[in-house]
Inverse folding.
């Protein structure tokens, strides 16, 4: 079993000690320091947590857009089932990246049918994004489908806006995190646990 890497420390109650923790436990305390009211906070699958969603919407009056993967198995299965059984054209589609040696096509489907059914707080919409990338130099194709939930209602964010917010999240993942991983050489480490 893989465990999230240790990324921070939290104080231990009634003690001068601190304990190490992962991204799940450190996300809310980091956000406490900034004004996020009315903002949309994005998170990868690790942060797709019910308590974190409640914290964002109820306590901080913010919205969330989370990717759903295997760590929320039932949520993922429900959303996959919905979109697998909805045969229709995408709600929005983009094609870009031609100038960078690859052509990227993104399609998004959004739905509100599961809002009351899903056991996840404050769901405004669920979505499926399918990305296709064609590398002009190598001729290779790649396909990826991701699922997600957002607290944004259809009145707050149409499919194009959801796709834009999701894309903005990956800009951070692919620039800031890549630089940190590269500079600290974390990804090449062969140290493993378990």
């Amino acid at each position: 079993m893989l465990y999230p890497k240790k990324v921070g420390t939290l104080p231990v109650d009634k003690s001068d000690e601190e304990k190490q923790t992962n991204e799940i436990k450190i996300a809310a305390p980091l956000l406490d320091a900034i004004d996020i009211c009315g903002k949309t906070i994005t998170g990868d699958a690790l942060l797709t947590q019910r308590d974190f969603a409640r914290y964002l919407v109820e306590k901080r009056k913010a919205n969330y857009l989370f990717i759903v993967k295997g760590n929320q198995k039932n949520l993922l299965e429900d959303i996959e089932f919905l979109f697998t059984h909805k045969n229709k054209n995408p709600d929005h589609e983009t094609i870009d990246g031609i100038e960078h040696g690859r052509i990227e096509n993104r399609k998004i489907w959004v739905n509100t049918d599961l809002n009351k059914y899903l056991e996840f707080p404050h769901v405004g919409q669920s979505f499926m994004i399918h990305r296709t990338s064609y590398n002009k130099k190598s001729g290779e194709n790649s396909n990826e489908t991701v699922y997600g939930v957002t607290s944004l209602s259809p009145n707050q964010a149409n499919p194009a806006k959801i796709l834009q917010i999701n894309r903005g999240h990956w800009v951070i993942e692919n620039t800031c995190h890549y630089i940190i991983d590269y500079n600290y050489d974390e990804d090449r480490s062969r140290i493993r646990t378990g």
Summary: The chain is about 30% helix and 30% strand. The chain has one domain: 22-187.
